[in-house]
Write a structure and sequence with these properties.
Strand content of chain A: 5-15%
CATH architecture of the largest domain in chain A: Up-down Bundle
Shape of chain A: globular
Shape of chain B: globular
Oligomer: heterodimer
Distance between the termini of chain A: 61 Å
Radius of gyration of chain B: 23 Å
Helix content of chain B: 25-40%
Number of strands of chain B: 11
Number of domains of chain A: 3
Structural class of chain A: alpha+beta
Strand content of chain B: 15-25%
Structural class of chain B: alpha/beta
Radius of gyration of chain A: 24 Å
Strand order of the largest sheet of chain B: 9-8-7-10-6-1-4-5-11
CATH class of chain B: Alpha Beta
Largest sheet of chain A: 7 strands, mixed
Distance between the termini of chain B: 53 Å
Order of helices and strands of chain B: EEEHEHEHEHEEEEHHHEH
CATH topology of chain B: Rossmann fold
Number of strands of chain A: 11
Number of helices of chain B: 8
CATH class of the largest domain in chain A: Mainly Alpha
Number of helices of chain A: 20
CATH superfamily of chain B: HUPs
CATH architecture of chain B: 3-Layer(aba) Sandwich
Helix content of chain A: 55-70%
CATH topology of the largest domain in chain A: Butyryl-CoA Dehydrogenase, subunit A, domain 3
């Protein structure tokens, strides 16, 4: 039987990272549940074996059910019936298989019937599901909204909603409105408190809501009458069983067509407050978005893998001028770089997931007991690393995903432009990854402060000390030199003390930092497993070129530069 | 009403992806070259059993397999999908069994179990393709049978209704419990393994496997009753030894012939339409194509 997990040994490699021992120990609280719960691991090895086995069963479902359904799902799409969403038949079958396999509520605690897995194996499931059907990932992957309930809702709400998520009910996060996209402070959906029954009632419209007809939704709404900014917004939980929300339309999208993107109308929809009033945007959406961004990073990596796989298979098969096209330098050069970008984005994805795992788990432990100063310090350190890496993982991986989809289609030539090959769908699916959950431009906004405060530079200096196998020390040395270049470029930009200018050069600086960090991670991976040796070499070479390019432009630049662009933009011939 | 359901399952070599080394020079199956899998139609049968359990809470699904010790893997696969209990019937005395001896041994083992309401098994195994064992077990137990089932529609008031695939369509049969049902490959596929059940049962072992295991999970296995897979040998069943294994098997393989594809004659065609047309006509008339 085909199995996506066993066919891609890179996944098992990333699962078995040395830091996992610490993560598992934290997540399992030193295996406190081993004698009282049938599914709890006995020790580290037992836990890792369980993750591996569950990933293997997920890989089988991906290859045997979800992948084969992808083309029909893309074609059929969801439909609107009496104000509600009806999934495409393939989507319903996929969801049924994953529910029966118990793959809902993967990261939630056992007391709510979750699997209590760390984020790393969960993200790995998302990576695989995305590779076989990117659109379906959204429906299944919205289970990570449950993390927000887990983190901020009351115990009673957790009992009621988390157990339902674990039993297979789907979720949605209702944030965007027609006039509130990237700028969520402008959210207008009105929440009114009813003294009589103690519930809130929601009225208004939400737009572009993925899986908008999901069973349980987190809704951002204006609870403070008369306010205009983010401080008047609160987070609510809407239960579809209570009714009050109808789907007005399902968007007709370019890609991820199996995933229903809905316009929702709230008519006195009963809802309950999640967490504290006024913290909806400032605290809860930020947490929600960080989780969602990691999910999109996983989706990007999965789609990248799919694009690469299709290109490789086609290039081996397609013969022109008497030989397979993979033998031509123009083609194998593209394929080599595609694989290097894929490996680079995947290693960044799992590094970020590990950071998130550590700080989130400390956060959960802090709910149970007071943390020791050293523990609190560790939590903060990993939170900073996670905050720094998430926009890089999401921003740069989604760009690589688009580049790989583009190159894969290019390798297919005219056939790729036809509807006959999967790459046509993969190409369309890839496009959204660099847009939703914050465009690449907004990821750069989130990342730039880690350039200016030196987080990325400190990380580079740290990675320079990582164990390196002798044949790779040359690459490490090269990367040390690149860090110097990056440091100089960053200083150069900041020297002008002009915030607009920092924003103007931000994309270049964040790319420099991101590529250098990814190269370091690949060198570390290659030091542990020779499978990554060539990716490390090819990607470092790519990084050398990109860093030099950006450094050159920055070196010759100053704030005046910006007016050239504004003039050029408006220039009429 | 809760039901007592038994599934008969077999571990078989995966003959669906046969390579060139699938047969030994002697013409027997080269088991080493083929992965051992859960017989596909037995998985369809397991799904029917699990659906009955879903509809009738409190029901038990027990799985019985006959084979070498490693056939315990089939029991674990069934536990991961929702079965409650399993037994492996294993003894050298069963070696060389044909369908008659197999069904005899199985029927003797089934008498060890509490009164059953329904026995489900796959129509046939992909290694032998006989479709005889299910019906023979029913005969030996004096139980009614419905073969080639596609769906067990209902079990109510001591009666079972089954949708059955026949040559020119489908028919629905009803009969009294207990009933043995053999299930077709066209029935719904079995549900996937479940992550929680997988973690719960991954250390389920028969005693024989435990001897080779490491200390860690022997104690775990000892302390958790649900991790015990039953293991029966010839002494655990009431039977007539002469009816077991080779001596109980009237089917004898007289000769095995290796089929070797070899072109006996060759024809060379030029690329003109008349010759190709003539070849097509010839192939149609001798039923090679069409």
């Amino acid at each position: 039987m085909a199995n996506f997990y066993t066919e891609h040994p890179e996944l098992r490699f990333h699962l078995n990272h040395p830091l996992m021992r610490h993560i598992v120990n934290l997540k399992e609280r030193q295996f406190a549940e081993k004698d009282c719960c049938d599914t709890a691991p006995q020790n580290f090895e037992d836990a890792m074996d369980s993750y591996d086995k569950v990933l293997e069963l997920t890989g089988e479902i991906c290859s045997e059910i979800i992948g084969p359904n992808a083309e029909d799902v893309d074609h059929d799409g969801p439909s609107l019936v009496d104000g509600h969403v009806k999934y495409a038949p393939g989507t319903a079958e996929n969801l049924d298989a994953l529910i029966k396999a118990g793959l809902m509520g993967i990261t939630l605690p056992r007391k709510y019937n979750g699997l209590n897995f760390p984020i790393v194996p969960y993200i790995m499931c998302a990576d695989m599901v995305s590779a076989v059907d990117a659109g379906f990932t959204n429906i299944w992957g919205l289970q990570d909204c449950a993390e927000t309930i887990h983190e901020f809702a009351s115990e009673d709400q957790k009992e009621r909603f988390l157990t339902r998520v674990c039993a297979g009910e789907t979720m949605a996060m209702d944030l965007t409105e027609p006039d509130a996209g990237s700028d969520l402070q402008a959210v207008m959906l009105k929440a009114t408190y009813n003294e009589a029954d103690g519930y809130w009632y929601l009225n208004g419209v939400k737009r572009f809501i993925t899986n908008g007809d999901g069973d349980i939704a987190l809704v951002l709404a204006r609870s403070e009458d008369g306010t205009k900014d983010g401080r008047g917004l609160s987070m609510f939980i809407y239960d579809k069983r209570d009714g009050g929300v109808t789907v007005r339309r399902i968007e007709n999208k370019m890609g991820i067509k199996g995933s229903p993107t809905c316009e929702l109308v709230f008519r006195n929809a009963k809802a309950e407050l999640c967490g504290d009033r006024k913290l909806g945007l400032i605290k809860y959406v930020m947490s929600l978005m960080n989780g969602a961004r990691l999910g999109i990073a996983a989706q990007s990596v999965g789609v990248s893998q799919a694009a690469y796989n299709e290109a490789l298979a086609y290039a081996k098969d397609r013969k022109q001028f008497g030989k397979a096209i993979i033998e031509f330098p123009a083609v194998f050069q593209m394929l080599g770089l595609m694989k290097a970008k894929l490996d680079a984005s995947r290693t960044m994805l799992y590094e970020t997931a590990r950071f998130v795992d550590i700080y989130k788990t400390w956060g959960q432990i802090a709910e149970e007991r007071k943390l020791e100063p050293a523990e609190r310090e560790e939590m903060k350190r990993y939170q900073r690393l996670a905050d720094a890496c998430t926009p890089v993982a999401k921003g740069l991986s989604s760009e690589f995903c688009n580049q790989n989809a583009y190159d894969s289609l290019q390798i297919h030539g005219g056939s790729g432009f036809m509807k006959d090959y999967p790459i046509e769908r993969i190409y369309r699916d890839a496009r959204i990854t660099s847009i939703y959950e914050g465009t690449t431009q907004l990821q750069v906004v989130a990342a730039i402060r880690h350039v200016t405060t030196g987080t990325y530079l400190n990380m580079m200096r740290q990675y320079e000390q990582d164990p390196t196998s002798p044949e790779l020390t040359g690459l490490r040395e090269t990367l040390k030199g690149l860090a110097d270049t990056y440091e100089a470029s960053a200083a150069d930009v900041m020297e002008h003390k002009n915030n607009d200018y920092v924003d103007f050069q931000a994309r270049r600086l964040v790319e420099m930092a991101g590529y250098i960090l990814m190269s370091h991670l690949l060198v570390s991976d290659a030091s542990r497993d020779v499978m990554f040796r060539v990716s490390a070499e090819v990607f470092t070479q790519f990084t050398v070129g990109e860093v030099a390019k950006h450094a050159n432009i920055i070196a010759g630049g100053k704030p005046d530069e910006m007016t050239k662009y504004t003039k050029c933009m408006m220039a009429k011939v | 009403m809760s039901l007592n359901i038994l599934v008969l399952a077999k571990q078989v070599p995966d003959t669906r992806n046969v390579g060139k080394d699938a047969m030994t020079a002697e013409g027997t199956v080269n088991r080493a070259a083929l992965p051992a899998i859960f017989n596909p139609e037995d998985l369809n049968a397991l799904e029917q059993a699990l659906r009955l359990k879903d509809k009738h809470p409190g029901s038990t699904v027990t799985v019985l397999t006959m084979g070498p010790f490693r056939a315990a893997e089939v029991i674990r696969e069934a536990l991961y999908r929702g079965a409650d209990k399993g037994y492996v019937l294993s003894d050298r005395a069963f070696a060389g069994s044909d369908t008659l001896a197999t069904s005899y041994a199985l029927s003797c083992a089934i008498r060890n179990l509490p009164q059953l309401d329904v026995i489900v098994c796959g129509r046939q195994a992909i290694d032998g393709d006989t479709a005889q064992v299910g019906p023979q077990v029913a005969e030996k137990l004096g139980m009614a049978q419905i073969t080639y089932a596609e769906e067990i529609l209902s079990v109510e008031k001591g009666r079972i209704r089954v949708k059955r695939r026949i040559e020119k369509g489908i028919e629905v049969l009803e009969g009294k419990l207990p009933m043995l049902v053999t299930v077709n490959g066209s029935a719904p596929a079995c549900r996937p393994r479940n992550a929680r059940l997988l973690m719960k049962y991954k250390y389920a072992r028969i005693p024989n496997e435990l001897q080779a295991a490491n200390e860690d999970y022997i104690s775990l296995n000892n302390s958790r009753e649900f991790l015990h897979i039953g293991e029966w040998n010839v002494n655990d069943i009431v039977c007539e030894p002469a009816e077991l294994g080779l001596s109980g098997s009237p089917t004898k393989v007289k000769k095995v012939e290796n089929v070797v594809f070899q072109a006996k004659e060759s024809k060379t065609l030029t690329d003109n339409d008349t010759e190709i047309e003539a070849l097509i006509q010839e192939l149609i008339s001798n039923h090679t194509i069409g």
